[in-house]
Batch of 2 targets.
Target 1
Amino acid sequence: MKITVLGAGAWGTALARLLCTPENAVTLWGHTPQHLDDVRRSGTNQRYLPDVSLPKDLRLEGDFAGAVQNAECLVVAVPSKGFREVTTGLAGYTGIIVSVTKGIEHNTGLTMCGILSETAPQATHAALSGPTFASEVAREIPTAIVTASRDLPTAAQVQTLFNRTFFRVYTSADLLGVELGGALKNVIAIAAGIGDGLGLGENAKAALVTRAIVEIRRLGVACGAQIDTFTGLSGLGDLMVTCFSRQSRNRGFGERVGRGEKARQVADSMVAVAEGYPNARSAYHLARKHNIVSPLIDETYAMLYEDKDVRQTVRDLMSRDPKPEQ
Amino acid sequence: MKITVLGAGAWGTALARLLCTPENAVTLWGHTPQHLDDVRRSGTNQRYLPDVSLPKDLRLEGDFAGAVQNAECLVVAVPSKGFREVTTGLAGYTGIIVSVTKGIEHNTGLTMCGILSETAPQATHAALSGPTFASEVAREIPTAIVTASRDLPTAAQVQTLFNRTFFRVYTSADLLGVELGGALKNVIAIAAGIGDGLGLGENAKAALVTRAIVEIRRLGVACGAQIDTFTGLSGLGDLMVTCFSRQSRNRGFGERVGRGEKARQVADSMVAVAEGYPNARSAYHLARKHNIVSPLIDETYAMLYEDKDVRQTVRDLMSRDPKPEQ
């Protein structure tokens, strides 16, 4: 199959590498010519996925139209902020588009496949999401993930395309639930990181994640997703690893905020995007729109966008009346 | 209130410390006179909870009858293996007994409060369980936990007794679910540790924990527990922290097995008990009794008790046909 991956960050590169088999012709598109030249010259994506050599038959392409033309399947791996702009070029595309981007558009409250239904309405849409550090997938360390599509045969097709002995792909029909889980977990990961920056321990982090999944589920169900999806790989699975891992960008972002840096400054200083920062704002407004009780999202929003004191936030959360758990 | 904590390990000591307020008279019972003498002399429990100074008014008692006499509330914090033997001395006790021990008795399939219903039938029973490293609670780092009793006023009473600004106590009426979550998570933590010992990554661990909670829930519901309890603090919350934390004894136990040591030898070499080891056997037999599909418990049992090769286990788990996620 002819496949093009749009976005030459860590995840796009790791997936392009995985897709390079004798059956597939894979193209990786990136928007920075200098970066593509570096990758071409070195045979590695040193900036985003260091020390992983890329297959010789992976084609690198800087021209968007050239990359997309003739592709039977597109994998979109660009930051959520640029997702609409990039996919606006796919208006006439009729193949399969797999979004691997996690986010909620702020103005519209749409997930990435929600955007695709506007920008590429003639294509078939799927998402691929789960607890998957790119560096581990690139090193072929066992990983499980879920692909979702409103159309189950499409999910099965994406499953076949990506499934490997080291990469176990489950399917789901709850596209919205899979996407919302992926977007909202990054917000909570920032909160977890703030706790780390403050010197809180693992007991507190476990409590945060446990209460967060209840909140994410409540919001997701109000948006129309299915409740069980949030305790799956793309919900809980991704949430916990993002909150507990030292590798997580979003957790690391929060850690710096917890140590006293301003969120805006942390965002400006990072090489790769921490999706939780823009998505905290999207999640907060989505919760207001659906009139959901969401103390953890609200407090994270307040710390990131209203300069709420992080220690005061912990005091506020701990001093609520403890209730029956369920 | 007059309270006695039975068991001078890390958790018993941390809770005895927490309970020492002007309103309470707290006694800590331990079964090793030499150990109690050391604690008395140094003012710390250097063996199990190092570098935490204990309140001067905490009474240390080596005589069981003397410790129990006049106590209005007993907190049982002994290893699950000794739980029946210790509580057999409480046949006539009529106060509140709070179990903080996590385990399933092998011969009977009973949880600790299940044992209490046989050994101390005149007492009121509750469990206190959640993601709570003793060292963090002893340092008063924010923590959340759940107390469960079949009798909700008892749960509320235990909540009042233990709740602190740094220690948030939720309540639950699902005693069995809270206890099973606490016991079964240690089995999975050993599996997670084996993955660490093998050099697997965080993607695999997140997948393991996510699939494990489905399995634990399935088994728990078959035993009569409520489904939502397993996504709470005592289920998921405790499971994830035990699997991801470097502090976890059970995870550490598994890590050594993953590196090639025999389970029996690892168990014999440890100062504190790794409850997941005996409980892997209890869980395996409980799953058979209820005819539950439990691949993760089964594989953990096989690695620990039948010397199944750990690499073969990973291959077996990864090569199953991936299915729809829910």
Target 2
Amino acid sequence: VLEKIPLKEGNTEARIIHFYSSILDASPKVSALKPNYAFFAQYGFEGLRALRELIAKYKGKYPIILDAKRGDISTSAGAYAREIFEFYGADATTVSPYTGSDSIKPFMQFPDCFSYVLCRTSNPSAGELQSLKAGGKPLYLHVAQNLAALDEGKGLLGAVVGATAPKELRTIAKVLSPAKGPLLIPGVGSQGASAKETAKILKRAYGENVHLCLINASSSINYAYLEQKTEDFAGAALKEIERMNKEIHIR
Amino acid sequence: VLEKIPLKEGNTEARIIHFYSSILDASPKVSALKPNYAFFAQYGFEGLRALRELIAKYKGKYPIILDAKRGDISTSAGAYAREIFEFYGADATTVSPYTGSDSIKPFMQFPDCFSYVLCRTSNPSAGELQSLKAGGKPLYLHVAQNLAALDEGKGLLGAVVGATAPKELRTIAKVLSPAKGPLLIPGVGSQGASAKETAKILKRAYGENVHLCLINASSSINYAYLEQKTEDFAGAALKEIERMNKEIHIR
């Protein structure tokens, strides 16, 4: 968010681009970028132009997951897929499962693009619906099994599972790992879950395919300079990334 | 969608604005406008500029429901609420319930703005999750009761319920009508549900408060000129609106 970007020059668009480029041009060891659509969209067209420009700048260098949590029915879902994969040029996105499979299928029509379906999210109220039991199984497990069935082993669909829910993470990893379904895992860093514990769970389920699991941290990296009490925000971000990578031993 | 807009002059932005303005400037008897974010966003910035301009043009004349189906956790939800209510200036929006109440609360912080929570949608795969029974109750009923509890009778939250599911519509109307919770009802028109039957169900539940229920048709109105085999798309839309209004006897 703009209030935490320690750059005063230029308009909103320029400041956002400058901030993230400084971090990324320092070549951090990260597996993917996951821009959150909401944080750009709140600044209107300036924010969205910055988003598009950043994607164009780093596409090919990192896989880009545009975290947009779209969730609408068939023809609308198709329009959203075009927005994300064609207009913004993202490689992957996040989608909501509430409206069922006809909202997810249009996202599977784009060659080389894939989607993470919200399964068990990392927020405090996640369980209100996601942990309800139907037919002896919690809702998030229905979602995981449905998406695995829909994917038919193609690897076009993965799941979003919060590291803040390790028991659920274990269950979902068990469903998706046999067919090499990818996982996107928020919740470490400022949301409080341990990167080390999370990595352990993932290695046990995925073994040598653990690279299919992406552990995601945003605020704790972007705003590491606040924690480290320095003005060198890019340096602070790199340091935090290195610290986390060491903790998870993935790279 | 652009392919169905029978106007060849101007760029994408101009054609979208011209098309919808022509219909709306003919003063149709409608209760609200419900632009679908996806259909504008698929055309990138030109589409989004048209969306914003149309909202600015008709704000105050009609309540504007920006159908964006946002659904993300707390701070992201707050950013989405700013996008919808501040940047686009909509009066209302649609939100997904999958991540629970902390994704809905930020939308309740905007004075005079309200939100429709997806409850039972109108699409073929809606039931996959929404009809699962937990604790003897289908998921959509959990959602309806949760949102009624969260709203505490303030009237800031309503529900999206497809007219294609009349039994579910009846159940949800029963939950929300005592506290005058508004309903947004897609599914009539090109999706096949009967406007007349829908209006009957709503009148029975809401009585004199039936104006809180908005029956929504989009394609069948916008593209009525195709059905009516005419080039006068604004006239055809008016004719279809009048036909529907007569059927539901609401105005």
